[in-house]
Fold each of these.
Amino acid sequence: MKLVYFAWVRDHTGCAEEEMSLPKGITTVEALAMHLASRSDAYHKAFHNVNAVRAAVNKEFATGDTIVSNTDEVAFFPPVTGG
Amino acid sequence: MQTYLSVQTADFDIASEIDSLKSRGAGALVSFVGTVRDSSDDASLIALWLEHYPDMTEQEIGRIIKAAQARWPLTAVRVIHRIGRLSPTDNIVFVGVASAHRDSAFEASRYIMDYLKSAAPFWKAEETARGKCWVDAKEQDLEAMARWEA
C-alpha cells in the first residue's frame, strides 16, 4: 500500500510518502494509525493522538473505521485549513 | 452552467476573472478574494505556505461547486486556489459566482467559501521570524460549514 503524509504529520514522519505492506490483522484506518504510532518515537508523535489526525483512503475522506487493503493509497493529515 | 476550477501557484487577475463570469442570462456577479494578512496571531508574518493533496483537492472542489449548483440557479462558477509560498497582500483564493439575480449569487459564493475552508484538502503554514508553524483548523469555520447542513 501507499502511505501519504501532509503538513505536520509529514514533519514527524520525515517523508511525504512511502510503500508498506499492510500487516496481518490490520483492517481499518484507526488500526493502521495505531500500528504506525508504534513504529518509532517520531511516528508516535504523528499518530498517537487519533483525534488530531484525519485520513483519506484512495483520495476520499475516511473515518477511523474505514476499511483499508494492501492496494489502497492512505493519506494522513491534520484537519484541513483552506480558503 | 459554465464552471472553472484551478489549483495553481500562479497569481490571477481579479478583473478578468470577474469579467469571465458574465453571460447574457447573468444579472448578478459576486466575487470573493481571500488575501494574505501581514500578521499571524502574535507575530509579524513573513509568508504563508499552502500545500494540498493533488487530484483529491480538485475532486472535492468539484463536488462543492456541484452542490452549490444543485442548490441555487447559477450561470457560472469560478474557483481558483493558489498553493506554494505567498507574501502579505498576495491573492490566495478567488470565488466567483454568477446568477440571474443577486440573492443566489451572494448565498452561493458564501457557501462555496465556507466549504473551501473546511472540506478541501489544503493546509496552511505561517512563516514568522520564529520559523514555520502549521495553522490549526478553526471551530468557527466548521460551524460556518455546518450551518448550511442544518
Note: The mean pLDDT of chain B is 96.
Amino acid sequence: MTSPTKAEGSGPSVALDPELASTTEADKPKKLEGRSPGQLMWQRFKRDRTGMLCAGVVIFYFVIALSAPLLTALSGTNPYTLYGQDPTYADSPVLDDFGLPLGWFGGVSGDHWFGVEPQYGRDLFAMLMYGMRTSLFMALGVTVLLMLTGITIGLVGGYFGGRTDYWIGRVTDFFLAFPQQLFFIAFMPVVTAFFVDPQEETPTYFRAVAILIVLWLLGWMGMARLVRSTVLSLREREFVEAAKVSGASPWRIVRKEILPNVVSPILVQFTYQLPSTILTIAFLSFAGVGFVEPTPDWGRLFASGAKYAEQDPAFMFFPGVAMVIFILCFNLLGDSVRDAFDPKSGR
Amino acid sequence: MSDNLTLPAQQGPTGTSTETLLAVEGLTKHFPIYGGFPIKRKVGAVQAVDGVDLTVGVGESVGLVGESGCGKSTTGRLITRLLEPTAGKITYAGQDITHASRRQLAPVRSEIQMIFQDPYSSLNPRQTVGTIIKSPMEVNGIEPEGGREKKVRELLELVGLNPEHYNRFPHEFSGGQRQRIGVARALALSPKLIVADEPVSALDVSIQAQVVNLLQKVQEELGIAFLFIAHDLAIVRHFSQRVAVMYLGKVVEVGDRESIYNRPRHPYTHALLSAVPEVAVDDEGEQRERIRLAGDVPSPIAPPSGCRFRTRCWKAQDKCASEEPPLIQLSGNRGGHLTACHFPEEPTTEARDEDVVMDPALKALEDSAADEAPVTKD
C-alpha cells in the first residue's frame, strides 16, 4: 500500500493504481523503456550458439564472395587464365600429358591453393571464389525479388479478401501447378531466344537476367501464400479494427499495423528461401541452361566436377564441401531465426 | 392489440440529458450465406441484427444487454461503422452516417470511438504504448497543446498508468493494464460517444471493477456518452442510466435502469434478471421470482415468426406467432420504458406463486424431490 507521505506528495493523483505508482517511483533513475518484440528476438537469438555460429559462417561466405577480387589478388590467380595451356605459364606446368593435374590432391600447391582444373588448368580457388560470388548474388537478387512480389501479392490478397483474394489465389494455384525443375530447363532457352537472336552469342549479363526472370516467375507463390495466410489472421485482430475506428486509411493500416507483424514469418522464410535458390541456380548451371563457359559459377563447377570425377575426384572436393557447409549453416540459421521469433514452435 | 397499451412513444434519454446524440432506427444487418455448386448463390442470411431502434443522449450511458449471440456486438460494430448496415438509419448529431464512406465519415470519426473486448488482441504487439495511443491523433491530424507525447502521458495518467510506460510494449502489461491502454486510445481523440464492446468480460473479476470504475470516472468527468455492451447485468446496472435488452437481433425492452431492473415487463427481461445469482444475506430478504428457460436461442438464420421469444416463452399464445409485437410504452410504465410484448408480465421481480420452470427435465427432477420430501419445502 501507499505510505501516507507518498499519498500526500504524489501530486495529481489520478492514478487508480497507487501500488503501481509507488513501485515505479522507487527506481526512477532507471529510464523505463520497454523491449520491443524485435529486441527480445535478438536476445533469444544471441543465446542460441548454433544460430550465432551459423550466422558467422554465412556472413563469412558473403564477405568472401564480396571480396573475391581481393582474395584472388592475394593468390595471384584469376578464374579465366588457362594455366595448363597458356604459353606464358609454360615454365611452371600444372598438367601432365594426359591433361590431369600434376601433384598432390588435384594439383594443390602454393600457386594454386585448391588445385587446378583438368584439361585447361584453370585455378580452382579463383573459380570457386568468383563462382560463389555469382551464385550468392544471383540468389540474393532472385530471393529479394521473390520476397517483394510474394509480400505484395499476399498482402493485397489477404487484406482485401473476397473476390480479389479468390482470383489471386487461382493465379497462384496456376503457377504452382507448373513442374518447376522441368520448366526451368524448358523455359531458359525460350526466354533467351525471345530476347536474343539465336544466331548471336548470348551476353552473360543477359543469361543472368534470364535466370532471374525464370526463377522469379515460378518462385513467388510460396511467399505469397505465407503472407496471405498471416495477413488473413491479422486482419481480424481487434487492433486493426481499432485503427479503422480511428479513421486510418487502408494503406496506413497495411503499413503500420499489418506489415510489422508479418516481418517475422518473412524473415524466417527468407533464410530458408536463399539456400534453396542457390541450389536451384546451381542446378540450372549443372543442367547446362544456366551460366556457361567461361563464366565462373558454383553450379558449373559441379558439372565439370562430375565430368572429371573418374580421373580427378579431388576437383569436386572444394566446391562440394563449401556448398555443403554453406547450405547446412544457412538452414540451421533459418531454424534458429524461427526459434528466436517464436520460441513455442518447433521442437 | 391488447388493452394495456398507450401510444407508441419515443424512447429517449431520461434525466441526465435531453439532447439526442446518436439515434438508430430499424438498424439491420444480415450476413449472407452462400451455398450451392458449381455456382454459389445466396441461400439465406444470418439475421444478426434485425430492426434495432436505439437512442443515446449526450453524455448518457446506455447499456445493451442480452445473451451470447443476440447481436449486441454486431450492433456496436454497425454504429462504429466497422460493418456496413443492410438497412436502417444511423444518425449521429443530426447527420446521417448510415452509409458514409471513410472520407465522408472523417469529421465524425474522432467523435465515435470504441473500446474492444479482448485486450490481448486490441493492441498491436509491435508498437509501443505511446505509438498506439498516439496513432489516432496522427490519423486525424490532431495537434494537442504541448505536443502529442505530452497528451499521451496525460492520458496514461488519467487511466491510472504510469506516464513512464510510454515506451513500453503491450506484452509487458497485464490484461487490466492493457484494457486501460485501450481506454486511453479511445480517449485520445476526445470523443463524444464511446461504444464499449464488452470491455470487461475478458478480465478477471477483481480487475473488472477497476476498469468499470475508470470508465465511470471518465464518463462523469469528461461527459462522454457510452453505449455499454455487456452480458453482465450487475455491471450494466452499476454503469448505465438506461438499459436496452436484446433478444435474437431485436430490442425487446428498453427503459431507464430503475424500470428495467425493478419493473420489467417483458418475459425475457424477467427471465434474464432471474438468472442472476443472488446471495440472500438473511432470510428476511425479499424473495425473487424464479424463471428457468429451456433450450437454446433459436437460430438467427430462421428466426421464429411473430415474437422471437415465443418459442421459449411461458405466456406465448397464437397471437405471438402471427403478429410481431411493436416496441411501445405500456400503460403503467414510465416514459421512455418501452416493451415489445403482447402479454407483458407484472412490473415486479418479486417471487410469484409458482416458479416458471420451462426445462422438462429440471421440472421432473424438482417434482420428484418435492414428492419425496414435502415437509422440507416451505
Note: Chain A has one domain: 44-341.
